From TrEMBL:
Class of this enzyme: oxidoreductase
BP GO terms, sorted: pantothenate biosynthetic process
Primary role: Catalyzes the NADPH-dependent reduction of ketopantoate into pantoic acid.
Pfam families, A to Z: ApbA (PF02558), ApbA_C (PF08546)
Gene Ontology cellular-component terms listed: cytoplasm
Family listed: Belongs to the ketopantoate reductase family.
Gene3D superfamilies in the record: N-(1-d-carboxylethyl)-l-norvaline Dehydrogenase, domain 2, NAD(P)-binding Rossmann-like Domain
EC number: 1.1.1.169
Catalysed reactions, as listed in the record: (R)-pantoate + NADP(+) = 2-dehydropantoate + NADPH + H(+)
Name listed for the protein in its UniProt record: 2-dehydropantoate 2-reductase
Pathway this chain belongs to: Cofactor biosynthesis; (R)-pantothenate biosynthesis; (R)-pantoate from 3-methyl-2-oxobutanoate: step 2/2
Species per Swiss-Prot/TrEMBL record: Streptomyces spectabilis
Length: 308
């Protein structure tokens, strides 16, 4: 998948032989990264609810991946983080973030870094309040990965990409650590560019696939005009927020997805789970309102989805 924002150097520094990484929420993306980091030789502590923690301690994490193959990785797991770690990946849904943060006492990250991989833009405020602004590295992930049962992960996309918004190289070489696990990781100097490039791309994908219950292949063919109009809206908001996002590039990215790909919001809808509507569509509407940008199509889709 082509990236949109210009990279900085930073992915090539040596990785500490064995880092200790906590994963708060070992689900679709957290479980995949936990397993890959463990397989790469790092110490991984998953922080999860009781049943999931018990299952992970007993069975490890089983990954089925077209990109990385099928493998099982041993991880530690607990309901509460009890010791300092080099890095804490935050990989819960936005709807579970406040409750999940009770499991990670902030002082345990005094020397480490927090890497949130949630979709959306507004969770960073919550995390900065909890851990302190200097501990949190904004980031986004591009992948399609599903937790089909506790500790069982189906990684469906032929890619796993992470963009880190880092102005100054953190003490822990985060990019090299993630690269060592197999993630195609880039360091980009601009937080807005990283977060809004993802949201401008994700919001049309998530809202349309969820609204119509169709995978991206059907949306980009049968509902092309709607998709293009919505991308015009999201890129206008993104540009107003200071992120130079271009509609043509986003449409090309949709076209490169395997046709059966679904958004995580769509998978949540299918499973009857709460949707991250506020984190994705709500954040978009609020930003459009702040900048006086009309986005009627996004508003209509949000109203449809809220009324489901
Ligand atoms: N899945 C994907 O392909 C992609 C997802 N994203 C984003 O990544 C984020 C995570 O999504 P995803 O991995 O799909 O989510 P999942 O629902 O698969 O995983 C979330 C995990 O959080 C755990 N969890 C929920 N509440 C708590 C809590 N209070 N304490 C501890 N753990 C908790 C769940 O536990 P349990 O297992 O016990 O239910 C689950 O393991 C979202 O913001 C999503 O939008 C971004 C790109 C792609
Ligand atoms: C669109 C996709 C699959 C890209 O990673 C995503 O971020 C999501 O569905 O949450």
């Amino acid at each position: 998948m082509p990236h949109t924002a210009p990279p900085l150097s930073g992915g090539s520094r040596p990785v500490p032989p064995r880092s200790t990484v906590a994963v708060l929420g070992p689900g679709g993306i957290g479980g995949l990264l936990a397993a890959l980091l463990s397989r790469a030789g790092h110490r991984v502590i998953c922080v999860a609810a009781e049943e999931t923690a018990r299952t992970l301690r007993r069975d490890g994490i089983r990954v089925h991946s077209a990109q990385f193959g099928d493998f099982t990785a041993a991880v530690e797991a607990d309901m509460l983080l009890r010791e300092p770690v080099d890095l804490c990946l935050v990989t819960v849904k936005q709807t579970a973030l406040d409750a999940a943060l009770d499991r990670v006492p902030p002082h345990l990250l005094d020397e480490g870094y927090v890497l949130p991989l949630l979709n959306g833009v507004e969770h960073l405020d919550t995390l900065r309040k909890h851990f302190g602004a200097e501990r949190v590295t904004p980031a986004v992930i591009r992948v399609e990965s599903t937790r089909t049962a506790p500790g069982v992960i189906e990684h469906g996309s032929p890619f796993l990409e992470i963009d880190l918004a880092v102005r100054h190289e953190p003490h822990v070489p985060l990019a090299a650590l993630l690269t060592s696990a197999g993630a195609d990781t880039r360091v980009v100097p601009d937080e807005n560019a990283v977060l809004w490039a993802k949201l401008a791309f994700l919001a049309p994908f998530a809202l349309l696939t969820t609204r119509y219950g169709l995978p991206i292949g059907d949306i980009r063919s049968a509902r092309r005009a709607e998709l293009e109009a919505l991308v015009e809206e999201t890129t206008a908001v993104s540009r107003a927020c200071g992120a130079p996002t271009d509609a043509t590039g986003i449409l090309a990215r949709y076209d490169a997805f395997p046709p059966g790909s679904k958004s995580s919001m769509q998978r949540d809808a299918e499973a009857g789970r709460p949707l991250e509507l506020d984190a994705i569509g709500g954040a978009l509407l609020r930003a459009a309102d702040r900048h006086g940008i009309p986005i009627p199509l996004a508003e209509r889709l949000m109203a449809d989805l809220e009324g489901r």
